[in-house]
Amino acid sequence: MKPRNKIKTLTLLLLAAMLAGCTATTESATHTTLEVRHSAYGAIITTKSGMTLYAFSLDTPHKTACLHGACTALWPPLIINGSLKLGPGINHLLVGKIKRPSGAYQLSYAKHPLYTFSADSRPGMMAGQGLYQFGGYWYVPSPTGNLITTKAK
Q1: Can you list the residues of the chain whose pLDDT is less than 50?
Q2: pLDDT of residue 141
Q3: Residue 123 lies in a domain
Q4: What count of other Cβ atoms lies within 10 Å of the Cβ of residue 131?
Q5: Are strands 31-39 and 42-47 parallel, antiparallel or unpaired?
Q6: Sign of the CA dihedral 151, 116, 105, 81?
Q7: How confident is the model at residue 81, as a pLDDT?
Q8: Residue 98: per-residue pLDDT
Q9: What is the extent of the structural domain holding 124?
Q10: Half-sphere exposure in the Cβ direction for 81 (13 Å, CA)
C-alpha cells in the first residue's frame, strides 16, 4: 500500500472512531427520498438533499456485510424512515428493503443495500466511489440498477 493510501485509510478509520455513535442515515423524520442526479460518472442515485448513495460489493440481496463499528460509522446505511418518495428516473420496481439486525429497514436498489459515505461532506461529492474498505469495494448505483465500477478520479 502506498504511504498516501495508508494515511488516507488511517484518517478514515480515525474518523470512524469519532463517529462511532452515528450508525444510520435517515433523510428526514417523515420520509426518505431517492432522486437521480447527474455526475462525472453519468446518472447516479442520491438522496433528496443530493448526498451520493453507494452499494457494498460484499452485500447480498437480503443481507448487509456492513453491520457495525467503523464500517457503519464510515458508511451509514440509508434507513427507511416514514414514507418513501421516488423522484423522476427512479424505477419503483428496483426499490426494496432489507431488515438489519437492529430491526430497522435499510433501503435497497436493484437488490443492493444503500449507504451514504461520511467523507462526502456536501451534496454531489463522490469520495467513496471505487474505494476498497472492509474487505470489499464501494460503488455508486445507476438508475438502471447497475453498479458504476469506474474508480474515483
Answers
A1: 3, 6-7, 9-23, 26-29
A2: 97
A3: yes
A4: 21
A5: antiparallel
A6: negative
A7: 82
A8: 95
A9: 3-148
A10: 13
Q: How far apart are CA 17 and CA 19, in angstroms?
A: 5
For residue 51, give every residue at least 6 positions away whose Cβ sits within 8 Å of its Cβ, in sequence order, or none: 25, 116, 120, 123, 125
Residue 128, C-alpha cell as written in the block: 467513496
Kindly report the three-state secondary structure assignment for every residue of the chain.
CCHHHHHHHHHHHHHHHHCCCCCCECCCCCEEEEEEEEECCEEEEEECCCCECEEECCCECCECCCCCHHHHHHCCEEECCCEEEECCCCCHHHEEEEECCCCCEEEEECCEECECCCCCCCCCCCCCCCEEECCEEEEEECCCCCEECCCCC
> How many domains is the chain partitioned into structurally?
1
First to last CA, the chain: 18
Q: What is the pLDDT of residue 2?
A: 53
Q: What is the largest CA-CA distance in the chain?
A: 45
> CA separation (Å) from 72 to 5, 12, 92?
21, 12, 26
Note whether residue 153 is domain-resident.
no
CA torsion 94→146→71→103, rounded to 10°? 10
Cell representation of residue 35: 432522486
Residue 8 is predicted with a pLDDT of 52
